[in-house]
Design a protein that fits this description.
By secondary structure, this protein is an all-alpha fold. The protein has helices at 4-14, 17-36, 41-50, 59-68, 75-78, 84-95, 102-109, 120-131, 138-146, 151-168, 175-188. It has a single domain (4-189), classed as Hypothetical protein af1432, CATH 1.10.3210. It has 11 helices and no strands. The protein is globular and about 55 Å long. Bound molecules: fe (ii) ion (FE2) (2 copies). One fe (ii) ion binds next to helix 2.
């Protein structure tokens, strides 16, 4: 695996300046979150820095990489080109940055849709990407504070926002996004829908 300096130098070459600055801000926020919660800082910084490494490619270029890396897109994924850079990015992380850490690769792969498989590394990258300091929508402000209280609740807030946005625009919802949200809720509130758990669930 390349060291952080080598990764950083390479990224500066392949990313547009503004994109690199976003990646850098995400990595700095991800670092702060990792330190605050005693998570693996170095691995989180690397995943955060690399997450958008494929975002500056055109749809045609991304399509070329999807073929080259033999990425199998589901029918739904074929219809959402916006998320292709995440899958290509994970393959580039392996190919160009020689990363074999599966949690780092999944953090990159699922930073657009999220996934119920995300480790804490993936959750921190997902969150930092969406609440980095340059994102200053009012609805993000609350989550920028919440991250210092609860990682999962922040993630849930972001997933809810994303789903509401997709519905309001009549856009496709990737099943991973729904599953990621359901998992957080199921892990926290055990069947709050029922005043008492029905027999069948005991
Ligand atoms: Fe992205
Ligand atoms: Fe990003």
């Amino acid at each position: 695996m390349m060291n952080l300096e080598q990764i950083d130098n390479k990224l500066k070459k392949i990313m547009k300046k503004t994109r690199y600055r976003h990646a850098y801000r995400v990595s700095q926020l991800a670092k702060e979150i990792a330190e605050f919660y005693h998570l693996p800082v170095q691995r989180i910084i690397i995943a955060a820095l690399i997450h958008d490494c494929a975002k500056d490619y055109t749809i045609d270029d991304l399509y070329h990489f999807i073929k080259k890396y033999n990425i199998k897109l589901s029918v739904i994924e074929q219809k959402i080109p916006k998320i292709w850079h995440s899958y290509v990015g994970a393959e580039m992380a392996k190919d160009i940055f020689q990363i074999d850490d599966l949690e780092i690769l999944d953090a990159i792969r699922y930073h657009s849709t999220a996934s119920c498989k995300l480790s804490l590394i993936g959750k921190v990258v997902y969150i930092a990407d969406k609440i980095e300091p340059n994102r200053n929508l009012t609805k993000i402000k609350k989550l920028q504070k919440m991250i210092w209280e609860d990682i999962d609740l922040t993630m849930l807030g972001l997933l809810n926002q994303e789903l509401k946005y997709l519905i309001s625009k009549d856009l496709i919802i990737h099943p991973h996004t729904l599953k990621a949200r359901n998992k957080i809720i199921m892990n926290r509130k055990v069947f709050l829908e029922w005043p008492e758990q029905p027999d069948i669930l005991r």
